[in-house]
Amino acid sequence: MAQQTIDVGKLRHPVERWLFGVCVVVSVVLFVGILLLAFARDEVIAVYAGDALATYRQANPEAANLSDEEVMELLPAEERETIALLEEYLSPVTILLVPVGIVLLVVWSFGREYGKLRANAVRITARQFPEVHAMWAELTRAVGIKEVPHLYTINGNGDLNAFAACVPWHRNFSAIYSDLLETCLRNEDWDSLKFILGHEAGHIRLGHVAWWYILLTFIYQLAFPINYLIGLPLGRAKEYSCDKVGHAMAQDRDCKGLLMLTAGKHLYHAMDVPEHIEESVDQGGLWLTIVNFMSTHPVLAWRINAIRKGHNGGVIFRRA
Ligand SMILES: [Zn+2]
After folding, report:
1. In this structure, are 156 and 14 located in the same domain?
2. Tens of pLDDT along 37-64?
3. How far apart are CA 135 and CA 67, in angstroms?
4. Ligand 1 centre from 290 Cα, in Å?
5. What would the pLDDT profile of 136-171 be if each residue is shown by its tens digit?
6. Could you tell me the residue range of the domain that residue 260 belongs to?
7. Are residues 209 and 273 located together in one domain of the fold?
8. Domain assignment of residue 315, yes or no
């Protein structure tokens, strides 16, 4: 039966919507602010240097009769370095080149990922694992992706993982690690495969791999401590969003796709699921919360809990 079309936008985690909005507003304000400062470069440097000179003269009365150039030589090293940095980098051209540089970095890193798949992976097509290709085509169409992204399987050397990415202005693509695919095919576990592929299709459809999304959230992923306040929580919200897309496709309340990541490719089929739910998924705790707080993905127990309870999942604290 053909997969029903779903409105993916409605599955976006509310925290993702909110944090992304913060990223957009703060980024634009920050960028425009720095650009305006760059246009007033000479005045900015004069004001900063003037303040530094006045502060030095106030703290060292013996420097009162020295010239500005002589006092400049006596300023603490970090003050002189800041003035040198402003002189070197505070120009409109440099500031305008920063977002261009970030986009080029995205093209470079995703282009390399795509190249690695072209070089070392197997592309799944209508003739290569046709049932997987048909499922992927149906899922991507159901979430509203017009052109079916390339899908690959690559040797993960035992790791169970999948990812999606996009070479800007070229193509979206996704890869599923071979052990993950092999396990789904061997066990005829179509639910898990639909969940995993649906999750990756969600990343593409919700724009998570698009250059503009990465550009607008770039600094929040890297800079400490805003990575803990914005970047990592946004990352976890994105994962919850895509889990909802995967679940909308698979409708598997047992969450076998996530249990496979929890217990490994053999034991997930043999484990006592209700016992695991009671002992882990339904439990909270301080250390669990700390691990979650420091992770790019929500902890697996919380992801399973969110799907089973049909809620949005806690980004910082566990939702019961
Ligand atoms: Zn994901």
Report:
1. yes
2. 999 999 999 999 999 999 999 999 999 8
3. 76
4. 20
5. 999 999 999 999 999 999 999 999 999 999 999 999
6. 8-31+95-309
7. yes
8. no
